[in-house]
Structure formats: structure tokens, C-alpha cells
Write a structure and sequence with these properties.
heterodimer, A: alpha+beta, Alpha-Beta Plaits, Chitinase A, domain 3, 5 domains, 5-stranded antiparallel beta sheet, 4-stranded antiparallel beta sheet, B: Alpha-Beta Plaits
């Protein structure tokens, strides 16, 4: 066997392997012995056919194929051992020549990550500020949620809720027919047609009102566009939305002692949310920055694998068991979708490789008790505890938990390095967020 | 009978392959063929020297086809011994 190696880009090595005639002959002979007991040829008992006759019957190529099926992996293994290569996945093999046998194997290697000087990167989290306006909006939203509809005895105003019977025709053809429809008289509403709400303004209870509106040119039903629509409406009830008074009583209904506390509570809530968001942003920025100063080289097979898992995730998220079903639904070919996902996959591969390297560099480790804690946490609000516990005890599940914990921890560590307070204890923030 | 009608086909079987070691070749021949005719035909067709010809009439097998009993036709097998150093290669099959 003769092997020549050639380094390719993207962490791949191409091996040119040439088999010697003796090796090929041996493989052919073995192949004959395997085949002969399977094939029945008239005039011969099974397993008794001479090789020459078998070759005549099946053709030489069949025998060769059978031989190569075993010979190539065998030679490939030998080549890898002699060249001291550590592949991370199956190689791509291409036979270039039959006699003598020459084939090319493209072997994906371990990705290499060269981290840049990430210690010198300095980023700050966006400072969090909660303005009066935001607090006001949040309180207003709470009020809206607690609003009640009260019947009133006056003509319709904008913003009221009305119970309405409506009969509409377009050039004699029926368009709408509803009885006792609850309708919000909102000047921005485009249902059933724009400016319908304005026409209702000032109508009294039980008064019949007939009016016509022009259907806009971009209406969803083509044949009605630009035509006149005749409405016949009767309002049977008018209700007004009443917001609760902004006082201690309202605060109590939201589980706060009084208005000041409500205000403080909301501010704290908003602040916590904003801080979390800015922390997440910082994380993302941190990893982006590290990726930027680092060099990552990996074989394309990792990208393809990532795409596979993305595809599967996507299919599952939309409730399909098989990726094929999902493809049918979105009517895209697999290749198209794969190409669309490629940039995402690329980014994910690079990020995770970089993060792994950082973990290695910073000696981030996850201990068994930490995994146990996480398991308990997951179990916390599960229904079928015993079943879940058994599932979580599986080695591969534990490993994936460990992995996700490690990447989180590494993230936190990275954020600390980058925001400049390296001394802080790693564990504290993690447990709060996990 | 014309010479070309004598030899039907070579027999390629386990036994025939074994006989090749003694420089003997096996053919199915026409029922009416005689030893001298076979000798001449083989010599002409393959350009070889024939030492001797043995012939066997293989009687047909009786088989039942439903209620009827049917006999497959008998045929004649010839084992042709060649002079040493003479060889025949068959290009039958693939």
C-alpha cells in the first residue's frame, strides 16, 4: 500500500491510497469465496463453481465491487494508522482507478480553534434605565386589563363597545349579516370597512341607521373593490369601558399594599427584565467579539450535521415527525432549505467551537453535584416524577445537561472576563438564571 | 448430416470442469451423430487434434405434468479427448 497525503483547507486531509496488486488479488480471492456459496449457476452445486466460470457469469465488475467493499475500509484504516490521523467522522471516498486500485479519501479532522487575545476585549453591558414613561405605560396596561364594561344611556362615542345587528349588501348581493355582534367602535378599525366606526358615532340606542360606504380598492375580495356597500345597522346596547381609578384599591387588586408600592414593584420588575435583556445582549456581544479575534477551522461535515439537527428541530417545532413531511408543507426541496439554514448553522458551529475552546482554556468544569442540582430543578415541576427521573438518569441525557451547563458557565465566565470583574464567584449568578 | 449440425453446445458443469484436467471436453451433440463425425467436427471447429471420442446417450427423464406422464427427449453426450497440448476455450455465456 502506498499512501500520499495532502492537506486541504477546512481541516481536511486528502489521502491518496494505492493498493498493491497482491493486496487486490487477495481481496478478490476472498470476495470469490464469499460470493461462491451464495450464487447458483446451472451445472454446478453451490460453492463448487470455479472462479473463472463465476467471473464469466457475474462479470468481473461484480467481483471487484464485492472485493472493494472490504478492501477499501481496510486500507483506509491502515492508512490512518500509518499516517497518525485522527478522523472525527467517516471519510468521503472516491475510487479513481481500478487496476491498480487507487482511491482518494477525504478525511475530516478535528476542528482547530485559535483563540485570540480575548482577555483584552472589554465590553460593558448597556446601562439599564427605566423612564417614567415606561412605568406609566405598564400601569396603564394593568388598568386596561382590569377595565370593566358598563352600559351607558347616551349616543355612541368613539371607544365604546356596542352590541350591533348589521346587514350589508353590495349592489344587491349580500355581504354581511350578523345579529348581536359585539363591536368596538374604534376609529382605526378596518372591520367591516374603514370609516365604519365613524358612521356609528352619535347613533342612539335601538335607532336604525342606514348608510353606504365605498369598498376600498385594495379590499381582500377582488370583485367588491371600488363598489358601494349599503349598511343597515341597529344598536341594541351601548357599553363604555371604565378603567379602574388609580388608587390604593386598584393597587390592592394587583396584590400590592398601596399605590406607591405598586409603582415600586412595577419599576423593579421592569428593571429586572431590562437587566436580564442587557445581560443576554452582553453575552451575545461577548461571544461575537471572541469569535472575531479567533480563528476557527473545521471540516464542512460539522456544518452539515448542524443543519441536520436544525432541520429536525424545525420539523419537530412545527409538529411534524419526519423532516420530509415538513418539507412538503413548506413546499421547498431539502437542498433549498439546507442552503437557507447554512449561515445559521455556520454561526452556531463557530460559536460552539469557540466556546468549547474557551472552556478548555479557562478550565471550566462541571461537577456531578451540579448536574444533580440541575436534574432536581428540572424535576421540580414535572408531573410524572419517577418517569422523568429515570429519563434524566440516562448517561446521554446527563451528558447533554452537563454540556449545556458547561456552555452556560463558560458564557458567564466570558462575560466576567470581558466586563472586567474576573474575581466574582461564578456560581452565584448561574443558579439564579438556570 | 452436415458437419455444422453435429455439435450442439459445450457442456459446462462441475464434472466437465474436472475432466478438463485430463484434456477431455464434453459436448452435447446431435442424436444421429457418430464418433467419426464428432471427431471431424471438433477438429474442424476448434483446430485441434482429437485422440478419441466417447459417446453416451442420456435417456430423457420422465416427469409428471398433472395427470400425464411426460418424457423429456433423450440426447447424446460426447466426451472428446484431445492430443496433449491442445486446448479449447469456450466463449459461452458472458
Amino acid at each position: 500500500m502506498k499512501v500520499t497525503r495532502e492537506k486541504l483547507e477546512n481541516c481536511q486531509v486528502s489521502l491518496n491510497i494505492e493498493a498493491e496488486a497482491r493486496e487486490l488479488e487477495k481481496a478478490l480471492d476472498e470476495a470469490y469465496h464469499r460470493l461462491v456459496s451464495k450464487v447458483s449457476i446451472p451445472g454446478f452445486r453451490k460453492g463448487k463453481t470455479p472462479r473463472a466460470i463465476l467471473e464469466q457469469h457475474l462479470g468481473k465488475s461484480t467481483l471487484l465491487e464485492e472485493a472493494l467493499e472490504r478492501l477499501i475500509p481496510q486500507l483506509y484504516k491502515q492508512a490512518i494508522e500509518s499516517e497518525k490521523i485522527e478522523p472525527i467522522a467517516q471519510p468521503q471516498i472516491e475510487v479513481t482507478q481500478n487496476e491498480p486500485l487507487v482511491f482518494k479519501a477525504i478525511v475530516p479532522l478535528k476542528p482547530t480553534v485559535k483563540l485570540g487575545d480575548y482577555h483584552s476585549i472589554k465590553l460593558k453591558a448597556e446601562p439599564v434605565e427605566i423612564g417614567e414613561g415606561e412605568i406609566g405605560a405598564a400601569i396603564e396596561q394593568l388598568r386596561q386589563q382590569q377595565a370593566v364594561l358598563l352600559p351607558v344611556d347616551r349616543p355612541v362615542q368613539l371607544g365604546d363597545f356596542v352590541t350591533l345587528s348589521i346587514e350589508a349588501t353590495i349592489e344587491g348581493k349580500p355581504f354581511l349579516n350578523h345579529k348581536d355582534l359585539l363591536y368596538q367602535v374604534d376609529s382605526n378599525s378596518t372591520f367591516p370597512l374603514p370609516e365604519f366606526a365613524q358612521k356609528l358615532e352619535g347613533v342612539k340606542k335601538n335607532e336604525e341607521r342606514i348608510f353606504s360606504l365605498k369598498v376600498p380598492a385594495d379590499y381582500s375580495i377582488k370583485e367588491f373593490c371600488g363598489q358601494e356597500c349599503l349598511f343597515k345597522t341597529t344598536i341594541s346596547e351601548i357599553k363604555e369601558k371604565q378603567l379602574p381609578q388609580l388608587d390604593d384599591e386598584f393597587a390592592q387588586s394587583c396584590n400590592y399594599a398601596n399605590l406607591t408600592q405598586l409603582r415600586e414593584g412595577i419599576t423593579a420588575d421592569l428593571r429586572a427584565k431590562a437587566e436580564q435583556r442587557s445581560h443576554l445582549e452582553l453575552r451575545q456581544k461577548a461571544i461575537d467579539a471572541v469569535v472575531k479575534v479567533s480563528e476557527v477551522d473545521y471540516p464542512p461535515i460539522l456544518e452539515d450535521r448542524e443543519i441536520d439537527s436544525l432541520l429536525e428541530d424545525m420539523a419537530r417545532r412545527f409538529g411534524y415527525r419526519e423532516v420530509e413531511d415538513y418539507l412538503k408543507r413548506v413546499s421547498k426541496t431539502e437542498e433549498e432549505l439546507r442552503e437557507e439554514l447554512r449561515p445559521v448553522a455556520k454561526k452556531r458551529v463557530i460559536n460552539s467551537l469557540t466556546l468549547d475552546k474557551v472552556a478548555e482554556e479557562e478550565k471550566v468544569e462541571i461537577t456531578s453535584p451540579e448536574v444533580d442540582n440541575k436534574v432536581e430543578e428540572i424535576l421540580g415541576d414535572a408531573k410524572d416524577k419517577e418517569k422523568m427521573r429515570r429519563f434524566l438518569a440516562l448517561p446521554q441525557v446527563r451528558e447533554s445537561i452537563e454540556q449545556s451547563l458547561r456552555s452556560q458557565k463558560t458564557m458567564e465566565r466570558l462575560v466576567q472576563i470581558i466586563s472586567g470583574n474576573e474575581k466574582e464567584e461564578t456560581g452565584s449568578r448561574l443558579s439564579g438564571e438556570a | 448430416m452436415h458437419l455444422y449440425e453435429v455439435l450442439r453446445r459445450p457442456l459446462i458443469t462441475e464434472k466437465a470442469t474436472l475432466l478438463k484436467e485430463g484434456n477431455k471436453y464434453v459436448f452435447e451433440v446431435a442424436k444421429e451423430a457418430t464418433k467419426p463425425q464428432i471427431k471431424e467436427a471438433v477438429e474442424k471447429a476448434f483446430k485441434v487434434e482429437v485422440v478419441k471420442v466417447n459417446i453416451i446417450t442420456v435417456s430423457g427423464k420422465t416427469k409428471r405434468m398433472g395427470r400425464r406422464e411426460v418424457t423429456s427427449p433423450s440426447w447424446k453426450k460426447a466426451i472428446v479427448t484431445l492430443e496433449p497440448e491442445n486446448k479449447i476455450t469456450f466463449f459461452e455465456g458472458v
